[in-house]
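Q: I'm teaching a short session on how sequence maps to structure, and I want students to see two examples side by side rather than one. Could you give me a first protein with its sequence written out and its structure tokens following it? Keep the formatting plain so it prints cleanly on a handout.
A: Of course. Example one:
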Amino acid sequence: MFHMVQYWPLRLITQTSLSSRCLKPMLTRPVAFAQIWKSWFSNHSLVGNKNIILMGPPGAGKTTVGRIVGQKLDCPVIDIDDDVLETTWNMSVSEKLQDVGNEQFLEEEGKALLQFSASGSVISLTGSNPMHAAGMQHMKKNGIVVYLDVPTTVIMSRLKSMKVDRIVGQSPGISLKDILQFRKQFYKRWYDIRVLCGGDIAAEVVAEKVLDAVKRYQNSELETFISTRSSRAGRSMEKDSHKYFSDVVTEGLAPDGGLFVPERGLPKFTAGEWQSLIEAAYTERAQVILERCIHPADIPVSKLAEIIGTAYGENFTCSKIAPVRHLAGNQFLLELFHGPTASFKDFALQMVPHIFAYCIPRSCNYLVLVATSGDTGSAVLDGFSRLHDTDKQRIAVMNFFPEDGVSPIQKSQMIGCQKENAWSVGVKSDFDFCQTAIKQIFTNSDYTGFLTVEYGTALAAANSINWARLLPQIIYHASAYLDLVHQDIIPFGSPVDVCIPTGNFGNILSALYAKMMGIPIRWCICASNENNVLTDFIRTGVYDLRGRKLIPTFSPAVDILKSSNLERYLHLIANEDGQLVAQLYNQLENQGHFQLRKDLLEKLQRDLVAGWCSEEDCLAAIHSVYSTTGYILDTHTAVAKVVADRLQDRTCPIIISSTAHYSKFAPAILRALRIAEIKQNPLSQLHLLSSYSPLPPVHWGLLETLKKKGNEDHQVCAADMSVLMSHIETLIQNHFM
């Protein structure tokens, strides 16, 4: 715990003189305020009458960058230290510190800010200004606060090169690094825009980044979304019907049946920007990446930070959130099962409900419908059940699953995740009926209109075609690479391969997006089970569903024949040719197949390779890895392991996505480990696995869910559209009315 004496402003004191400036040269004479005011009204900055306010730690270069930005904009430049504090006090900052002492200095500095007013200027704050709440609130009223985010290690190096031997307010036993880390919470509280400034980046480059960031902040209309099936001609005729991030989160599916993608593509990070995140925690990496993917007009950075903190807080059992574990040789596991429902879907579905709650209109209630055959149901139910009470009152979830088409553990988990705003309904049919029924309900305008008029309730979807579901997955692929760099496995810039068990193509698409954003991924290896339509497609360019029947396997999350997110990737490699994508998917719908042009297949094969795994090989891999390492793979990870062994060339590390915890598939795991006695009770199965002291341990969240009494309590309905619609209406009446 820091005492008050440690909150004092950071002022630099060199070995040469107490009053010398370490970060900037002293002005020979403070500019007269009359002259400043005159120039304020005679110049117009990038943001009109707004100020650009530069904030950051000592050594971040705020003053130098501010001068360059001011020159480029031809507007006044104000340094709070020199032009405000020393003018107001009629003494140097160092003299003021000596005069009033550390405890009073911060308050005096804040008072000076409260008396200060400017417009149309570039303002460089002191390193300690953000610690005075009232002063910063005053500054933000007429300014855009830009945080120059420099890694602490870089700041330490800069201060050392300037021969700074101590920091004012630094108590004995408290290191400079600790104080700099502590102060970050104040910088993060106030900024509107973050500019990453890692390494030896020149001040001129930082200034350009500031200008670009401010332009983006002021122009939210540039970050629009389009459908994967829309033509360029059609888009040019529909300029008045732009879709923004908030719209696509709420709507999910485009009106023409396509999927939403950002019109200008995803942001690209420089190598230096990625390197500045090497030492960052997972949540910090998530914040930085999402800030660049979601415009602050849709979700301000402060709200985004709140959402990330809630999503990846205590409900994840590992503090690293998505740790990377060495398996053997050049193979590493990206563990994505530490969330509350033990699958990779928690990464999106612990976050998306809070994004959804923020983006939807306050004037309407929403019922989120979900069809699932496995992990999605429990992840959606758990995520939406964690909303704030006020949001639960206006957002509810109904999950439909095939009553006899899921494993006992999956069924128990979905039922155990039911809460006051989240319900599961078993349907006496298969998954195809559940999914088709929901699609028909969404397209039944008479029924959806009736719900809106009669009950003030709109329907929404939270399946993997929603754009917001993909963004959190980009984060963990990027984070895995940065972890390997941080662990000195590779230097930044060296390539890695990733191998991902793939069904609906969302997870591997997120890895491809991470590659586009600057993460050095060489190959994305698509791992299929016996439902290997994607493997055939990647190898041949022919997507052919004719004569194929879905085969139930030990890895149900990839038991998919029609991979919906593949459409986004085809749109990307086709240079946003929506007409071509629409043609391909119309042909798939009507004829059951399509074939890529040769040039598109060549593009695809520069990113993707693919293989598939039999049921026997899946179980054998689980047994082999456990026998040699003591580690238990789940069935999906085992599929990826088998494919990775076959396709990797061992010239670089390969990161295998471990997408679920083995606890969810206990019968298959017990069979793979050749344990003869397999009890039917799911809880007994987990206790049996736990008795082997496995690595990792049995998932605690799954155990707690299965221990709950009343897991057998849920509604079951016939495979009839009118019955499902009746259930929906009854739920709305009971929850919202």
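Q: Perfect. Now a second example for contrast.
A: Example two:
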Amino acid sequence: MFHIFQYRPLRLITQNSLSSMCLKLMLSRPVAFAQIWKSWFSSHSLLGNKNIILMGPPGAGKTTIGRIVGQKLDCPVIDIDDDVLETTWNMSVSEKLQDVGYEEFLEEEGKVLLNFSASGSVISLSGSNPMHAAGMQHMKENGIVVYLDVPTTVIMSRLKSMAVDRIAGLSAGHSLKDILQFRKPFYKRWYDIRVFCGEDVAAEIVAEKVLDAVKRYQDSELETFISTRSSRSGRSMEKDSHKYFSDIVVQGLAPDGGLFVPERRLPKFTAGEWQGLIEATYIERAEVILERCIHPADIPASKLAEIIGTAYGDNFSCSKVAPVRHLAGNQFLLELFHGPTASFKDFALQLMPHLFASCIPRSCNYLILVATSGDTGSAVLDGFSRLHDTDKQRIAVMNFFPEDGVSPIQKSQMIGCQKENARSVGVRSDFDFCQTAIKQIFTNSDFTGFLTVEYGTALAAANSINWARLLPQIVYHASAYLDLVHQGIIPFGSPVDICIPTGNFGNILAAFYAKMMGIPIRKCICASNENNVLTDFIRTGVYDLRGRKLISTFSSAVDILKSSNLERYLHLIANEDGQLVTQLFNQLENQGHFQLQKDLLEKLQQDLVAGWCSEEDCLAAIHSVYSTTGYILDTHTAVAKVVADRLQDRTCPIIISSTAHYSKFAPAILRALRIAEINQNPLSQLHLLSSYSALPPIHWGLLEALKKTGNGDHQVCAADTSVLMHHIETLIQNHFM
């Protein structure tokens, strides 16, 4: 068996190993000595008896980077090709490949790995090692596998310059690009850490990224979450105030009524890293971005990649998942309606259920509570219905929606998506009541404690108050910008504006987070309908609900007066001042208004501008765009289009978030297209719209759902929190008992 053990273990300073020079330094300059010792100890303790195993395609720089990392850690460096395979075979790797052929080569290579062991070393694998399952499993048992993810275009350029013309698998029938693409799933199966190398960067920089990534992997304490209402002094005193990603996905709302946010903010990507994603698919972009936001101790990177592939694979009707379409002039549409329930909510809610199921303990049942103004309900029900059967047995969903505050098709969707473990209840009130009632239920310790003791069931949230709902939305804003660069519309680094129909402030907050992470977004434009409390707030700094009544509009998903995610944004610009946030939102709750101080309003107005759209202007925009382009906007996108027309200065492209498919709002769309007589049957309405042969076509998922379910049955209840609690307990009894 081939053994290499760490030949220089951690050297403790003793009377035998401490040189007179070190002793002199320690006595004369204790602070400087302490800094040197701390740095030295840190690098050695990083490895211990584990190996750092570098994996990636040929040309990824594994050998060079391995040597640099080994030098920095002062530990053995092993190159599998040069130091192990060629030594064992007594011939070069290329000669062996030519001698035995591709299939036999992989098997012979795997056998060598199975007979190899090392400790405390940096190991550079061959490009084909990950294709032998047993060999890789053996290597992984005593190592941290680091995937050097280099864009395929960069790899091909490197291999060409190196005159590499033979790698395992390359034959007359397969191109080099084919082989590189074929190997990617094997790399994704085994890695613990991905180091995304972006554009062609120096090996020294990549080596530093490897060390940083390994440090992050070994220290989950670096990535904790806090409540928007926690004070700095309280956080330092209360050990339990820090939560991890797996905690907050399950918990949803903080115990003090605040919302969870990352304590150290979100990671920032370099321009080179973003540019390395220009050629990537949507799924690949999501993997790279979300892996940097979710610690592997919460969800291992390879598991996260599997979840992302499941969420954004066959469930979306467009291969690009979130395509960007040119509308007119400098305006572009980000189409966010290609998921199974035809709204942007699918991006979070095809992913979140799998994240949730991965984070919850196996010993407890969970009931997901949802309040929806239209699109969230069906998206939650559909997303959780796609879990594995074993997960569905311990996770149920209760969806509350305003009975008369959603479109007929939205209601049909929510009713049709009901399953044995998922129910929808109409409430005789508006969305704000539903959302407030759920918050009250979560903070009612008597009720939640009763459910836990009596039924072994905990409550969790799937609304955008849950951090796992917001995180996936960052991806599509970043992806839209990268698509414009890929299409040659702008060079990387040129700014864009983003205009978003806004109600609960989650989508626009995700765009702002993308900006913080390095996407060159200039302004985020908040587009309101006639419920324009946010527009007034952004313009004046006064959030005032006194005397306001919710208006039912054609764009029902943004018929909201209390914008929950605004709290996260204010916490951010107030430098994480939880006491101020608590004061503002307590005042809003008790007095119906609050006002920002001048310096915070100035900060806010550097990031955000806002406008609102009347019902007449909304319908007029739908008609105008269809008449000139043949494209049908939904009512929410039309609101954003109207506001974008008014506020953009046309000095840069503007990306308008198209948050839902127009099929969901057929009566309003038919009215905008000036159809005199509108059949009240939702299926008939969709058939009429399909006769227009417009772009985009009628949504496949909606049509199928209506054909299968019709209108169905559902329960309706009074606007009383105790009645909602009764429905919750009944579902728990029926499903879990």
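Q: What should students look for in example two?
A: Point them to this: The CA atoms of residues 415 and 681 lie 15 Å apart. Also worth mentioning: Residues 467-486 form the longest helix (20 residues).
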